[in-house]
Amino acid sequence: MYCLNPIRWCAVAVSWGCLVCSAQSLRQEADHAEVLIGTAVRPSQLSEVNYASTLAREYNMIEAEDAMKWWVLRPDRASFDFRQGDELVRFAESHGMKVRGHCLVWGRYNPEWLTQGHFTTDQLSHLLHEHITNVMKHFSGQVFAWDVVNEALDENGNVRDSIWYNQPGIGISAKGTAYIEQVFRWAHEADPHALLFYNEAEGEGMSRKSDAVYAMVKDLRQRHVPIDGVGLQMHIPVDLDIEKRATELRANIARLTALGVHVHITELDVSVPIDTKGNSQAQDLKRQADVFRSIVRACLDNRGCTAIQTWGFTDKYSWIGSHSHGTRGDALPFDRTYAPKAAYRAILQELSAGRGSRELHTSP
Ligand code: XIL
Question: Would you say the CB of residue 201 lies under 6 angstroms from ligand 1?
Fold first, then answer.
């Protein structure tokens, strides 16, 4: 007697005398639902047995939390250091996982030699073109999708000041999004098979920022600029209106996928308040599970939403602690001992229920 799935089968199986009900993993359910379930990964943690085994068991996609950013890949102007990125790719290949690349163009987390280098626009243009080309060619056939541009817009939907845009920029700051268009074109030339994403923070619902992302992607698509998807980061706190958030997320996913692009939820974490002893409240974790559930459901209900990824998977390692100066945390599906939380069970149940019938728009 073999129990395929705790949710679908165990109640029946127990009455038949099944003793061992082995739970399905997120990745098994995600494969059935035809969606990618991913997590950001820190290569330095892969040597930890619990970390590596949980990762391999539960996820069918990984992304470098930091290992493919400029400050890791470019120790100096002359060299590229692909060691950490290669380690992730090797892990993914040996466990049948896809790899998302993050990120080629961002105004933050750049090395000092670059930001303090007083380069001219021509030099910056050359450096960025070279970076995109070398990195994408290096990972060609290994990284299936790239966040080409990360967080280029501010909360009002204006293009953010950055070294690539206007400080001093790569030479095309007159029309705000022209530099974004340029780097998508370079990325497509470097690896014509990779899916190319624009990834943005705090623009998941309906807002001036998400309106601006939508307008930009619409414009780029209309002019046949090679952009294949939008990444919705989703670093969110537990304490907002779940219904409103889910309704807005659904509407935003619907309008983006109607443009013919994929939507990936790329950096989901749902942080809860942490007390001075480092503990969270049970009721917050319960509510957190409801938040995860509603977001996963919103993605699964639209065929164009093709990946759900959390920013890490264990509360042992999450950027939220340092980002919130210790006031928030416990934002992920596994606790600090790798035990699955209510949030995990909510995600598993939604994946297990599969794709919904409410497909709002055709897939890309
Ligand atoms: C964060 C990482 O988690 C940290 O380890 C690092 O110190 C800073 O960057 N949006 C992004 C991610 O696109 O790259 C950021 O990752 C979190 C916010």
Answer: yes
Phi, psi angle pair for 197, to nearest 5°: -115, 145
* Residue 39 included in any domain: yes
d(CA 141, ligand 1 centre) in Å: 25
Ligand 1 binding pocket includes 150 (Cβ within 6 Å): yes
66 Cα–ligand 1 center, Å: 7
CATH number at residue 160: 3.20.20.80
Range name among 228-242, 246-260, 312-326, 347-361 with the lowest pLDDT average = 347-361
- Cβ(245)–Cβ(298) below 8 Å: no
Of 345, 350, 360, which is closest to residue 23 (Cα–Cα)? 345
One-letter amino acid identity for 136? M
In a domain, 7, yes or no: no
Whether 155 is a known active-site residue: answer no
pTM (2 decimals)?
0.93
What is the pLDDT, as a whole number, of residue 3?
38
State which ligand 1 atom lies nearest to the alpha carbon of 151: 13
Amino acid, res. 95: H
Note down the domain range covering 168: 23-353
Lowest average pLDDT, out of 2-11, 94-103, 180-189, 191-200, goes to 2-11
pLDDT digits (tens, 9 = 90+) for 211-246: 999 999 999 999 999 999 999 999 999 977 999 999
Q: How many CA atoms lie within 13 A of 92 on its CB side?
A: 27
